[in-house]
């Protein structure tokens, strides 16, 4: 079932962007072709740029600590499986410890690698990492896949506690709201938002056979969803039919 996450604030937007980059890095890392490993490294560079713009480590630790308090408050609740709860708390504690144990700035080991930073600088130029621009990088890409994968895993390892923290926090966020079945009349849906605790993210799910996608404009007061399809020239056009979808408003 296709799903779309729409963040309501910059904090959640940053977490989703990093999650997307981790998915791309890990997928390409697992492949064998040099082009896949090139894409993995480019995504790793983009990850560094996102991390540099946010106080990410502090934010992740604060959220993990807050969720640990919330989870401990659920002990003894007959509606909660005790073993599952213990496993989640253990994962939170292990991940928080790994983040705290890294005393340097996130990604600093990569920034200290002059060769990687020279590649990153050239990667910002269209076609800037051609073999005649950076022959050492062309040589590295020509090494056997085991060597390339080993290098990539070494460069990625200091950031893996961030990946685990993202996984825990976003899993909790996505599971936090009640899902409702909605209908967008003629492809359009609006809803006013209220409550003392505003939503942080909206999740939209569609059936596989629904040939359209949502475009969302939202703030803490209201959401506006318009479902579009792509014509033969890939130009979005609003669907003029009623669209059935599932909507979840999520909050940590």
Largest sheet: 4 strands, antiparallel
Give the number of domains.
Answer: 2
Q: Overall mean pLDDT score?
A: 91
Figure out the total of helices: 9
CATH topology of the largest domain: YacF-like
Strand order of the largest sheet: 1-4-8-2
At the first level of CATH, the class of the largest domain is Mainly Alpha
Polypeptide structure, described:
The protein has 2 domains: 169 residues, YacF-like, CATH 1.10.3900.10; 73 residues, YacF-like domains (YacF-like), CATH 2.60.440. Helix 2 runs parallel beside helix 8, helix 3 packs antiparallel against helix 4 and helix 4 runs antiparallel to helix 9. It is of the alpha+beta class. Strands 1-4-8-2 form a 4-stranded antiparallel β-sheet. Strands 3, 5, 6 and 7 form a 4-stranded antiparallel β-sheet that branches. The two termini are 24 Å apart. The chain has 9 helices and 8 strands. The radius of gyration is 21 Å and the shape is globular.
Any descriptors?
2 domains; 4-stranded antiparallel beta sheet; 9 helices; alpha+beta; globular; YacF-like; 8 strands; 49% helix; 252 residues
